[in-house]
Specification:
It is built from four helices and five strands. The protein is an alpha+beta fold. The longest helix has 21 residues.
């Protein structure tokens, strides 16, 4: 019986390893440039996917400051909440406008970890906006992980500005 248990453990480990490698996210991605139209769809958690039936009209004139995060954290800082509240006020006044929250990280950590952390950061901002009364169907999220640094440096000063959520507004 011990041989069979050992064999089952090995098979289970191989299946888990195979599952983890097949679920790896593709590194990179394209960020919307000003004026670009991006096809997208809101998934069950508000994440970006592909939407063949149309493209979003990106509003390049609407700009808000990025929400900054502490190292290895997706918790919204008290000092950053006013930024989200201003975005919430704008969305309440402009009910035909939605937002894509783009989660970003610094370069420390693996690409896969940073993609997941960027998504958690974007989802935290999404949850905060929903808590302010914004329709969740008008909020999408996208993680860029470490792929779109705001500062190319390799020190704490650069890393601190790369740990952020940015906001892209679109008109439906």
């Amino acid at each position: 019986m011990t041989k069979y248990r050992w064999f089952a453990v090995v098979v289970l480990m191989l299946v888990c390893a195979l599952a983890m490698t097949s679920c790896r996210s593709r590194k990179g991605g394209r960020r919307a440039a000003d004026g670009d139209n991006i096809g997208s769809e809101v998934g069950s958690e508000g994440t970006l996917g592909s939407r063949p039936e149309g493209a979003l009209n990106i509003l390049t004139s609407v700009k808000y400051d990025a929400v900054m995060f502490d190292y290895d954290s997706a918790q919204i800082r008290e000092s950053e909440r006013t930024k989200l509240e201003a975005i919430g006020d704008y969305l309440k006044k402009n009910t035909d406008v939605g937002v894509i929250i783009e989660g970003n990280c610094d370069e420390r950590g693996s690409a896969e970890y940073n993609l997941a952390l960027g998504e958690r950061r974007a989802l935290a901002a999404r949850a905060y906006l929903i808590g302010l009364g914004i329709d969740g169907n008008m909020i999408q999220t996208k993680s860029y992980g470490e792929e779109t640094p705001a500062n190319q440096g390799h020190d704490e000063a650069a890393w601190s500005v790369n740990r952020r959520d940015e906001f892209v507004f679109f008109k439906k």
